[in-house]
Amino acid sequence: MPLITYRQALNDAFAEELTRDENVFLMGEEVAQYNGAYKVTEGLWKRFGSKRVIDTPISEAAFLGLGVGAAMMGLRPVVELMFWSFAYVGFDQIINNAGCVRYMSGGLINVPMVIRGPANGGTNVGATHSHTPENFLANTPGLKVVCPATPYDAKGLMISSIRDNDTVCFMENTLLYGDLGEVPEGSYTIPLGVAEVKREGLDVSLIAHGRAVLTCLAAAEILATEHGIEAEVVDLRSIRPLDEETILNSVAKTHRAILVDENKPFCGVSSQIAALLAEHAFDDLDAPVLRVTALDAPAIYSMPLEKLQLPDAQAVVAKVLSSF
Amino acid sequence: MARKLSKPSQSKKSAPKKAVRPVVSKPKSQAKPLSKATPKKGGKKPLPLEKAPAKKAPSAPKAVLKDATKTPSKVDFSKSPFNASLKPAQKIGYLREMLRIRRFEQQALKYYNQGIMGGFLHLYNGQESVAVGTASLMNGHDEIITAYRDHGHALAVGMGMNECMAELFGKGTGCSKGKGGSMHFFAPDKHYWGGHGIVAGQTPLGLGLAFAIKYKKINGCAVAFLGDGAVNQGVFSECLNMAALWDLPIVYVIENNGYSMGTSLERSSAVNGSLAKRAEGFCVEWATCEGFDLYELRANLGAAMERARKESKPMVLEVSTYRYYGHSVADANAKKYRAPEEIELYKSDYDPITRWQNQLLKEKTVTQAQIEKIDDEAKAEAAAAVEFGIASPWPSEESIFEDIYHEVDHKTEAGQTGRFFFSE
Amino acid sequence: MPEITMPKLSDTMTEGTLLRWHKKKGDKIEVGDILAEVETDKATMEMESFEEGTLADIFVPEGGKVLVGAALALVLKDGEKAGDKPKASPAPTAPVADAPAARPAVSTGRPLTPRARAAALRSGGAGGNVNAGVRVKSTPLARKIADARGVRLDAVKGTGPGGRIIAFDVESAPVGSPAPAAGSSSVAAILPTPIAGMPETRVPLSGMRRVIAERLLASKTQIPHFYLSIEIDAAPMMAFRKEYIAASGGKITFNDIALSAVARAAMQKPKVNAAFAGDAIIEYGSVNLSVAIAVEDGLVTPVIRDAQKLSLKEISAAVKDLATRARDKKLKPDEYAGGTITVSNLGSYGIEQFCAIVNPPQAAILAVGAIVKKPVVNSCDEIEIGHRMSITLSGDHRVVDGAVAAEYMTALRKLLESPALLLL
Fold first, then answer.
1. Contacts of C30 in chain B (CB under 8 A)
2. Which of A22, B97, B108, B358 has the most CB atoms around it within 10 Å of its CB?
3. pLDDT digits (tens, 9 = 90+) for C265-284
4. What pLDDT was estimated at residue A101?
5. What pLDDT does C147 receive?
6. Closest Cα in chain B to C9
7. Residue B1 contacts C, CB cutoff 8 Å
8. Is C397 annotated as catalytic?
9. What domain range is C280 assigned to?
10. How confident is the model at residue A163, as a pLDDT?
11. What is the C-alpha to C-alpha distance for residues B389 and B392, in angstroms, rounded to an integer?
C-alpha cells in the first residue's frame, strides 16, 4: 500500500469524489488558485476548474449559508474553513440552518454538506486560531462531527462524509497534515460512528479522537515497556454519531478508562464520554474515569507553555499510573 | 365602494394630529421603478454609483404623509409588460389569495389569543400583496425563501391552509409535523424554502439557492425576502458582495414595513432614505417601489426577476409596506412606538386588498357580490382550517427523534452506525 | 352566541388583569374594535374583538384578574337573544391536558428505597457491626464482586489509590469475613522490633494477605468458636475407593469422598448448614460447599454449588477444576460467592488433626486430617492395626450448639464408614 500524507489522503478523496459526482464542489478561502492555505486542495482547481473549486471572499457566514442553500437544492458542497476557529462567525448558518432545517421542516429538506478544516491547538497561533469546536457542534442534533487521526481514516471518512445526506463537520489537524500512513489507492469508505481499537490491551482503556489518539499510542508503548501495563487505545473517529458500543466493550474488558482529549475539559467531548461511562459502565469500573485534556484556559501563545497545555504521552502515562 | 377589510377602531376623517411614518421613505425622484428602466440588451448599464446621490428623506414626517397620501403613482403600472396581459381570472385569483392570507391570519390571531397556540405569531396582515405578487411571478423554476413572517408566502405559493394552521397548533398534520411552528413553514416541492427564524439568517441560504440555479443551469432565479431590520445584519452585506462577485441570479426583496421589531427605521438605519441604496456599495442594482399596489409590485419585481434570470445578476428591491399588528402578537408596544393614527391611515388608505378590490371594481373585472363571495369562501376555509387543526392529533412521542438525520430516518447503512441520540 | 375570553397576548402570559372596558353592555361591536385594555405580565395591551354583534353581558369587572381563556363577556350576534344555546364551535379545550402521552412514569420495579436498604443493612449485617457512618471507598466493580462473593467491604483493606478497595482486593479476600470490631483497624497490633544481626526479608503485605489477616482476626475474635473432633475408621473408605476405581476406571481422592459426605450429612442435619444474620439464623436449603484451596501467597475458597446433588465423580471433577483455575487466578468472582459450609483438608500434608477458623457468615467449617495407621481396639477387644481419619468441626456457637453439631458429626461418620451410601 502506498505511503502518503494525511494531506494527500484528503486531496485524493476530493479528487475521487469530484470525479464521481458532478454535484460535488469545493469552496472556501483560497482553496482554488492559491491551492489551499495548507495545500490540502492543491492541484484541484487546475484539474477541475473554477466551477468545481471555488475561491470565496473572507465571508464565512455568507459562504457557509450559501453552502446550506445549495445543499438544500441537492448539491454537495464541501466547504473549507481555513480554521474551524473561523466557524464562529458563521455559527448561525451551521447550527440554526444546517443543523435544524431538516427537523423544522419535518424532514422535507436535507443538507448534504461537508464543512471541513483544521481544528487544533499546538501551533502557537493564539487562542482565536486554536479552537476545537467538536463539542459545540456535536451538541447540535442534526449535525455530525468527524475527527480522523490517520491518513487512512482521513480519506475513508471524508468520502463517507461527502456521500452522507446530512451535514458533516469534518475536523482535521494542521499538525497531522504531514503525517505519513498507508492508504490504499482508489475509493473506500469508513462508516461514520464506528470507532476503531487502534491497540489492544487488558489493563486500561485510553479513549481519544484526532491527534490525541497518536498521543495515546505513544503512551501505551511507554506503559507496556516501562510499567508492564497493557493499555487499549480506542480511536472514536467520529464524535457524533458516537460508537458507544466499542467504548463500553473496551471498558468492560479493562475496567479502567482514561479519556484523552485536546478539546477543553469543561463540557467537552470527554465530559460526554464520562457521562456515558457513569451511566452504562458503572459496575465495570475499577477506578474513577480520569481525563487528560487541554488545560482549561484559552490556548496560550508561548511555545513551551502551549506544549504543556495539550495532552502529551507522559501526562497520559502519569494519569494511568495514578489510577492503579 | 369596496368593503374595508380592516376597520379602523375610530373613524378619523380629519388629518392625523400625530406624526406618522412616511409611506414612501424617500423622495419620489430617487425611486427607481425598474419597469421604466428596462435593461438594454447588451448595453452596458450605468453603474449604480453614477446615479445622483440620494438626499436624506424629509425629516418632517407630517409633510411627507401629506405628500404620500396625495401622491398617486405617476406611472400606470397596469400597462407594464408584466400586467398588461393579465387575464381577469388571474387578477381575481390574486384577490382570492390575498383574502385567504388575511382571513387565515385573523383566525390564527384569534386562537393564539385563546392561548392554544405556542410560541410567537408574526402576522402578515397589511403586507399580503408582496407575497401574492411574488408567487404570481414565479416561473416554475424560481425559488423563494423568507424569514419568520412566513404564512403569507406559504399560502401564496400554494401550501394548504389546513397544513399551515395545523402547524400553528403544533399538530402532527402540520406542514412541518408540528416541529417547526409559525416561523418555519417549508414546501420545497413548491419552490418555497421557508420560513427562517433568525433575522437575515435566510439571506445566505437564498444565495445558495441562486448558486444552485446557476450551477445546474436552470432558467430561474432566487427571491429572498428580508425585512428592514435584517439589512443591518452583517451577513446580508456579505451576501450582496458575493452575489455581485459571482453574478448570482437573486433578487433580495426588502419588505420595508418601517419597523425592525419595535424600532423605527429612522432609529435603526444610518442610511434611512433608502435601504436598497446600500446595494450601491457592492455594485448591485437596486430599486424601490410601493407594495400596496399589486400592479406596481408586479411590474417592479417582475422586471427584477426577469433580469436575474436572463442576465444572472443580483438585485435589491425595496418594497414599502406596512404591518397592522406588532412585530409579533407578543409585541406589547405595537401601538406605542407607532401612532394609532398611523396604523389607521394605512388601514384606511393603503390596505393592499382594499386597493386591489377598488382597482378590479374600477376595471369591472369583478363585482361587489363576487368579492363578498370570495371573502366568505376565504373565511370559511380559514375556519375549517382551524377545525382541522384542533381536531388533528398531536405528533407521536416517537416523532421527537424523527427528522433529525436523513440517514437515520431512511435506515441507510450510514444511519445504523453509532449512536445519534443521547437521551434515549 | 360567542364568548369573549381573556386573550393570550404574549408568549409567556398565563393570566391578565382587565383594566378598563372600552365597551359597555348593550354596545354594538365589530371585528377589530378595541373592547378593553388588559394588563399582561409584560405590558398593558388592547384587546381586539374577533366578533361582531352586541355586547350582551360582561362577566369580569374592571380590575378583575383572570386566567387566559376565561370568559370575560358575551356577544350576541344579530338575531340571537340571551338564553339561546351557545353554538357549538371548535372550542379551545385545554389542549395541554391531552398532549401526547406524558413521559413514562418512573419505574416502580425498584426493589428497595435507599431508606429501606439502609434499614435492611442495619438489621441484617453480620454481627450488626457495620461501621456506621464510615464511608468505605471502593470501586463499582469491586462492589459488584463483593456482592456476588458475599464479601463485606468494611473488612477489606483497599490497595487502590487513597486506600480505595479495587476488584483485586475483593477477589483475594476470604469469603464472608465479618467486619473488624470498631477501633481494631491495625493488622498487627504488636509489631516486631528489629533483631540485631538477624537477616530478614521484608515482604510487603499483598492485598490478599492483608484481607486474610483482617478477616480471620475478626472471625477468631468475634465468633464464639467451639470444636468437636471425631476419629473415623477409614478402612471401609479405602476399600471403597479401591473398588470404585477398579470398577469405574475414574480416579477419586479421599478428599472427594470427604466432601461428598460433608455435603450429604449437611442435608440430613441442616442446622449446621446455616448462617448468623444478626437478628436471625438462616438455614439453607441446599449445600454450597466452600473448598479451601491454597494458592500462592494465600488461600481462596471457591464454591461447589448444590454439592449434595452431585455424584462423587462430579464432585471430583468440580474440585479439580476449581483448584486448577484458582492457582491460575482464573476464577470468576461469582465462583467465590454463596458458600454455606466449608471444608479444609490438610491431610495431604500429613496433618493428622487441626482446628479451622470459621468462615463467616457460615456456621461451621470441617477440618479434615490425614489417614494414619494406628493401633486400634476392635470389636473383639483386640488391638489391631487400623486406619483412622480425624475430622474436627469448628462451630459458631451463636448458631450451632454442641449437641446439634454432635448429631451432625454422627451422620458424617456413618456416611464415611459406610461409603456405599454415597452412591445412593
1. 7
2. B108
3. 999 999 999 998 878 888 99
4. 98
5. 85
6. B330
7. no
8. yes
9. 224-423
10. 98
11. 5
End-to-end Cα, chain C, rounded Å: 94
Give me the architecture of the A3-182 domain, per CATH. Answer: 3-Layer(aba) Sandwich (3.40)
Q: What is the CATH number of the domain that holds C380?
A: 3.30.559.10
CATH fold, domain A196-322, is Rossmann fold (3.40.50)
Do residues C25 and C147 both lie within one domain? no
What are the tens digits of pLDDT across the range A167-208? Answer: 999 999 999 999 999 999 999 999 999 999 999 999 999 999
Q: Name the percent of chain C lying above pLDDT 90.
A: 36
> Which CATH number do you get for residue C147?
4.10.320.10
Q: Which three cell numbers, joined as nine digits, stand for C20?
A: 378598563
Q: Has residue C1 got a pLDDT over 80?
A: no
Specify the number of domains making up chain C: 3
C107: in domain: no
DSSP state of C421: G
**Do C238 and C213 fall within a single domain?**
no
Per the domain annotation, does C187 fall within a domain? no
Closest Cα to residue B325, out of B234, B405, B262, B283? B262
Q: Are residues C247 and C171 in the same domain?
A: no
Contact A324 C160 (CB under 8 A): yes
| CA dihedral over B330, B258, B191, B198, signed as positive or negative | negative
A187 with A221: CB under 8 angstroms? no
Q: DSSP 3-state helix, strand, coil percentages of chain C (rounded to 5)?
A: 30, 25, 45
Residue pointed to by grid coordinates 407521536: B396
Statement to judge: residues C139 and C230 lie in one domain = no
Residues C418 and C353 in one domain: yes
Q: C382 and C279: one domain? A: yes
**Could you tell me the CATH number of the domain that includes residue C42?**
2.40.50.100
pLDDT (average), residues B229-250: 97
Contacts of A62 in chain B (CB under 8 A): 204, 207, 235, 238-239, 241-242
Buried b (16+ CB within 10 A) or exposed e, B113-146: bbbbbbbbbbbbbbbbbbbbbbbbbbeeebbbbb
Nearest to C359 by CA among C263, C303, C290, C257: C290
Of the candidates A16, A17, A29, A60, the residue annotated as catalytic is A60
pLDDT for C183 beyond 50: no
Record the cell numbers describing residue C350, joined without a space: 500429613
**Angle subtended at Cα C358 by Cα C352 and Cα C363, rounded to the nearest 5 degrees:** 120
Q: Hey, where are the domains in chain A?
A: 3-182, 196-322
ipTM: 0.94
DSSP secondary structure, B221-271, as one string: -EEEEEETTGGGSHHHHHHHHHHHHTT--EEEEEEE-SEETTEEHHHH-SS
What the block records as the C-alpha cell of B99 is: 383574502
How many other CB atoms sit within 10 Å of the CB of residue C199?
5
Chains in contact with C via at least 3 Cβ–Cβ pairs below 8 Å = A, B
For B354-377, the pLDDT digits (tens) are: 999 999 999 999 999 999 999 999
Q: Is the pLDDT of residue C409 over 90?
A: yes
Task: Outline where C155-194 has alpha helix (H).
Answer: 167-171
How far apart (Å, rounded) are the C-alpha atoms in residues A172 and A209?
A: 11
Residue A9, all three cell numbers:
489522503
- The CATH fold assigned to B74-262+275-390 is Rossmann fold (3.40.50)
- Can you give the pTM of this predicted structure? 0.70
B255-267 confidence digits (pLDDT tens)? 999 998 989 888 8
User: DSSP assignment of B15-33, as one string?
Assistant: PPSS----SS-S-GGG---
**Strands in chain A per DSSP E:** 3-5, 24-28, 53-55, 76-80, 114-118, 143-146, 167-172, 180-182, 196-199, 204-208, 231-235, 238-240, 257-261, 290-293
Residue spans per domain, chain B: 74-262+275-390, 394-424
Name every chain C residue with its beta carbon within 8 A of the beta carbon of A322: 161
Record: contact A70-B242, CB cut-off 8 A: no
